[in-house]
């Protein structure tokens, strides 16, 4: 078994690493207004706590536990911030995918056709920027898609709308309608998949499902009118396309939130946090705020491990001896046996050995 | 949305952002900068070392090397700079290479502006400043006045070579993974103490309370580390943390299997070796004082007085901080938590910074008497915990090996070292590589005598030995030999390869002088006639020293210098040179000649007058030609202003012949005549007038006296005249330059015509990049002649340490006891006879000598004692002689004439 001070050094080092990573996660999303201020404050609080622990020069078991506790909370903070980052990344990826699908539809339409230089130039510009945004995502630099001073998804969106206006004037209405329908056809499966991944308890699932029906209906109308009334078809297909784009936008966010909530619940479960909230239920509802609030309170106070998880660590520290664990901690002998019984029932314990006098 | 396209020209904002991003990534910036400088330096070195003194590096090759080294996808330059938040979008738009090129070009411009590089002839090729300087050296002539055409002046240099090497330092900084926070070793010690048994002296004095006392001491050391050190000293290097832990635990516990009798600390110059052994000895002393153990705890031995003084000041600073933390800065010598003393013949001149003066008043403490120090500015500012009293039993005693030899035998040593029940715990030999040859034999024997005396005072106390050096390869083996212990009992404390940073480089220029020769130089009208028609001539001699003289001032006026504030963090000028020669006579001659050339202003014969817009300095400068054809577009004063003159466009024979030192353009730094000083017999004096100078010199020439421990922050250049005596010594000498991590020191070695000089010129890599075997330090610790002398001295040690003998009566004689005059020779005889068996054991134990050897020494001592019975002046009363001698000894000042004379003689002998 390693010496206490070596354990202590290793624990502090790992706590410091978690905190450094947490800071780096935070920096990657700090411009998105996506991180609750309490989480930001906890970065500094943990930093101060680690500095206090660095000042300790006589390491007792209690100090070691304090350090382990701080390391656990730093790890939790880093995990939460990584989850926040993942949510933002998922949203950015979805936005860039949507812009790409949208643009590809127009790109297919303009290829091999006579269009004005300004329209051609707009196409090149969007192609170039979409390519850059995709490269940023490939390099895991999602945040720069939003935080650079040269382009943004919103600006590409505006350009695509201007392009749409140009194309409406420059290309045949029938071909335009077909292009819009093909874009909608590309978007719909993604939206469906997204809705499918939302839990039934998530209120947004049914709400989006209802409104998506409208989009589909307009898509069918446009197809029908394409044969009979081209002007009306153009009008309807544009509304349908807008609806599909909006649904892609909203559903991708709902999915990101649902994933975010489930990951937070998984963190609570894996860390064995003793939380009264029914976190599985909250995750199913996609109730991110409640889950975040619980985790923040854990990070900012002290990790309340489940009794089983804590006892497991203590028994490991004392080579499995119940006597020594009881002597060294606040656990009573009987309380340990009681908890062991529960752990045994949960298949956490392979065997129990008894040593007679 | 932006309308930029990939082919858009690079705007200023982009350049600025790219440059800011690059320079803010300090490690990447340093690494790229160093590699570019290395590429240029290597290209120039390759040419110069092949005899092309006009060597350059093509920008294309430098850029390609930069791309190869730093533009791979996973290179830090790409991941941390090009793909940083600030640049990634720009890089995606323009491509890696274009942005990398912007940064590369900016960096080259910066290096040219800073004088590291210069464009040569055009902007497609660059040369390192050192290579340009080497070019001037290669073409240097013996010019003594402007009267003679330079083409008649003899060339002084046969060949030149250059080299450069990386400079490494232990990694420091509390956020660096390979460094250690202060508390870490303290925690580890506290844990080890739990299962350890106390060292004998603590068991004896503290008993069961020792663990608590250790813990309290560590708390205090923790406070000292956190609050008492300069801000930039915020952590320990990993090897310093190991040193603190190991040395302290070894000293306060009973030696277990991990304990070692000795530790040897090795690290680069300026790498914190002193702190590595001082901090644990400070902690030991605090603990010992807590335990009520009085007397000296550590004897710190240095090979030179200057170094003693320097280290006395350093230790004083740490001890002052600790005493201050304990509210005892005004305490008396006996009450202060920690005390220190210095003992050598020149200790009377020691000065210390006054800790009582505030930042505005820069007070200096001077020795008031042997008891304390007093501030020059304010006599109320008194320090009593530092002393020069030789008999004072201070916690730390700083001395030379030579003084220690004397203290072992005299009453001062008796009082300082052996008057308490617990003898010193530590014996430290700093700069231990110096102890080779006779100096090493002597110190090894002094150590054996010291160990013997330590053992006599407290047989159970385990002494701990520490050696330290920057330039030793066989560290454990040598340490074992000099301390007289098994190599397996020595621990080596040194930074591992991954605990070091490469911070920059150092440069070397090796100059091979022409063979000495007589040269006839035409003067007057003869200069304009064919040789056969010369009527007026002057003979001149071109010697190796002539070459050194011209190089000495060329070096100063053409080397790259910096002034405080020129770059962030630069607080000292970097503009001085320290030169080494190996004889006192040469120091004076060389210093005198160089000072004379400066007073005559010979360097001005090579000023770039056209660039400077001056007249009449360089008689050969085609000034009018070069200032008349300037292009107003570039706001140039001269065609050769921004670049040395291109031989294809505007050829300048003066530059091509090395008679224009083009880089000599800074009026403050390059164009002022320097003040030359020499250091000899412990004194720094003006090379011309001989007047004592303090810090007012530009070039200081010395013997080996300043080879170790002379740390002046402004020294950026060092030179060595003739072959060094050994490689470790040379490494120490060049280590005096560039004390700050960011410095790029230059060392010039001027080699003459001797076979040794030729050998070193052709094997210059032994000096610039010495292999391990070159840094092995030989030591014949058992040399029987030297040992016999120390065995004799050890007999005197014996009487000095033995309680049953009145050592004062033995050596000072009856005069002091008032019962007579002269040494009490009968008493000495009685004591010698009575103690002979013990003395025999003493010598056997100290030197492990054979019975025959001991017999021989005892016989000779006996004969000596017998000879003392002879009258000083047969037939006459010798009382007046002894009275005079006694009075002379009693009345002399601490640094009286006898001491001075002896010390001066001794120093001459060492040098």
UniProtKB/TrEMBL annotation, chain A:
* Highest taxon above the source species: Archaea
Q: Does the keyword Coiled coil apply?
A: yes
Coiled-coil ranges per UniProt: 5-77
Q: Which UniProt keywords apply?
A: Coiled coil
UniProt name for this protein: Uncharacterized protein
- The species is Natrinema hispanicum
* Highest classification ranks of the organism: Archaea, Methanobacteriati, Methanobacteriota, Stenosarchaea group, Halobacteria
TrEMBL record, chain B:
Q: Which InterPro entries match?
A: DEAD/DEAH_box_helicase_dom, Helicase_ATP-bd, P-loop_NTPase
Q: Sorted alphabetically, which CDD domains does this protein's record hold?
A: SF2_C
| Keywords attached to this entry | ATP-binding, Helicase, Hydrolase, Nucleotide-binding
Q: Which residues form the Helicase ATP-binding domain?
A: 254-490
Query: Per its UniProt record, what Pfam families does this chain match?
Result: DEAD
For molecular function, the Gene Ontology terms on record are:
3'-5' DNA helicase activity; ATP binding; nucleic acid binding
Asked if the Swiss-Prot or TrEMBL record annotates the protein with the keyword Hydrolase, the reply is yes
- Keyword Hydrolase appears in the UniProt entry: yes
GO BP: interstrand cross-link repair; nucleotide-excision repair
SUPFAM superfamilies with a match to the protein in the record: P-loop containing nucleoside triphosphate hydrolases
Question: What is the protein name given in its UniProt record?
Answer: DEAD/DEAH box helicase
Organism, as annotated:
Natrinema hispanicum
